Amino acid sequence: MSAFQFYPDLGDPIPGLTGPSLGTYIIQANTQTLVMDAPIINPSFTQVKIATNAGLTGQGNNSIALGFGAGQNNQGAFSVAIGFNSGCTGQAGNALALGRACGAINQGVGSMAFGLNAGFAYQSTEAISIGSTSGFTGQGSYGIAIGAAAGNRAQKTNAVALGRQAGYDTQGANSVAIGYLAGYSGQHANTIILNSSGQVLNSDRTDAFFMAPIRNTGTSSQLYYNTTTKEITYGPAASAGASGTLPSGGLTNQILAKQSNTDFNTLWSSTFTGTSAYLSSFVDAPTINPYQTQVKIATNAGLTGQGINSIAIGREAGNLNQANGIAIGSFAGQFNQ
Q1: Does the bond joining 213 to the residue before it have cis omega, within 30 degrees of 0?
Q2: Which pTM does this prediction carry?
Q3: Degrees (nearest 5) of the Cα angle 148, 153, 159?
Q4: What share of the chain is helix, strand, coil (3-state, %, to 5)?
């Protein structure tokens, strides 16, 4: 006799064994015989159920229940439950539960749960949970949770959580969370969160992308990063060392001009028409007016009564009544040039 032959207890006499009780398996290995407490393997049906209360009530055809309480009540056809209380109640057809109490309550059609308490309760259609308490309760249809406690509670339809406690609580539909604590709580729908910071990183709006950390190289880029919310956006490129914006209606080559009719000590602050542009520095100077012919650069240069075609460069240069002259230098041609 070969080793480890299984004999279902159908009431037939077994050589060397007296009076086997109903509901036992007999395993004979060479000359040793072992009696196991288990339901009967019934050769007239297609189910397999091994261990106490496995496949106890309403087990579907071609299903397998292995372990105490596995597939205990209403296990669906072609489903598999392996482990203590796995697929215990209402495991639907074609579902797979492998591990202690995984898929225990109402596991959905075609869904899969692997690991301690994975997909424990109300795992929906074709959802996947891999890892201890992943997809623990209320995992949505087609959701994927991989990692300890990933997508633990109320993961929504088509959401993906990869990493320990990623998408832990109420991860939104069609969202993606990758990394430890990524999208830990209330991740918005249609968002992506990549997190390797070791700290919680959540979203603050829908249809957005969040990532941490990002290295600051100090160079300009069209990629913009919000250091508070960790959101990544894109926009017009900025000049190196940007510190302010062009005035409304200005031109990019008017880098020393102030907006017309502003106080001399006012910095550029308005948004450039049609887009946003940035200046590397500012000078404290009156307006260069593109509709006049005067030039005046620096505080109070050409301040009052500056004549046509005159030039005043420097503090107080051509300050008062400059007429068709050129004054360059602080206080040059200050009065009545």
Answers
A1: yes
A2: 0.59
A3: 85
A4: 0, 25, 75
